[in-house]
Amino acid sequence: MPTRSSRIVGALGLLALAGPLAACGSESEAAAPLSNVSGSSADSHPEWKQYTFTIGDNGGDGSQELAKITGVFDNAPYKVKFARFTYGPPLVQAAASGDIDLGSVGDVPPITGAAKEYGFKVVAVNRSLRPDQANENIIVPKGSTLKSLADLRGRKLAVPQGSSAHGLALNALKSVGLGPKDVKLVFLDPAAGATAFNTGKVDAWSIWNPQSAIAVKNGARILAKGLPPIDQTSSYYVASEKSLNDRTKRAALTDVLKRLAHEFAWAVKHEDRYAEAISKEEGIPLADAKASLETFETRVTPVEKTDIAAEQKLADAFLEAGQITKTVDVASITDNLLPAGYDSSKLVVTP
Fold first, then answer.
1. 42, CA 20 to 30 Å: which among 73, 151, 187, 301?
2. Final residue before a domain boundary, out of 176, 195, 225
3. Per the database record, which ranges form the Solute-binding protein family 3/N-terminal domain (predicted)?
4. In a domain, 70, yes or no
5. CA-to-CA distance for 317 and 312, rounded, in angstroms?
6. 84: which residues sit within 8 A by CB, 6+ positions away?
7. In what order do the strands lie in the sheet with 235-240?
8. What pLDDT, in 10s, does the model give residues 102-153?
9. Quick one: 125 and 16 in the same domain?
10. C-alpha 204: how far from chain center
11. Domain C-terminal end among 204, 225, 246
């Protein structure tokens, strides 16, 4: 059997694993108000000292760099590290196997993961502060003759399989009376999708920001925006079922989630620093990070009945389209870590 680390790197597509976080110099000083966001300390929770939590990072939102900038985990009575993934499905699989403890993904990976009977739970929602801004789109290259979704009939549409962009593609096609059999879905991870799109090997691409925003900046055109009713603007935190079932570890993991929520609440009020974090983490120009910044601004809340209903509708659509083979009961994979009424947009952070 392969070791845990080799499973992550080889099978799950882990790109980078950062060590325990420690802010330093001016960054730590600038973010001092976040150094004790939850009131927990090593003294009040000595039992947490034994834990190292791995946070799955799906890319794009700058969470790893923000943790360094804000120092949000500096006084935590446990250690944290970040595991980087190219997109959501491998992250959900990692949560199920216990290779990560917590991570944020789009709306589809929990569905495809549940269909494969992975052992994880949806524990919170990253709810967009700008629900009129699409975080993902279906785009066509510069000069494309395609003018509408209906024009995709018989064409090649690149999609990261099992991702939120996969859900956008299905619902967008369904909105004009098309299904997976009417187009040629080309399942490619984001990097391969970018190559295929830029070299004309596919006719369209369903993809999120910053890739979508960068492509549009370079001349691509949006064929369909990822907005209701064909797409959600929320994403979801998933956690390892094994961690959740341990009472002490569950309490500590709740603390981890609240610190992440505080981190993003700070980022929304410090947009320049937020853009810098995204730029550095994604390796993209600052201007490109700023172009997609609004779509990353979120608030963390518990999972609500409306979220479960939206996810159930999406799960049923995936089953109907033959993209999964097992019925998914979304309520059964939901386990809120946060108390009712929790809303990170109401957190007090330094202006």
1. 301
2. 225
3. 52-285
4. yes
5. 9
6. 14, 15, 16, 17, 18, 57, 59, 64
7. 14-18, 79-85, 52-57, 102-105, 235-240, 120-128, 298-301
8. 999 999 999 999 998 888 999 999 998 888 889 899 999 999 999 999 999 9
9. yes
10. 22
11. 225
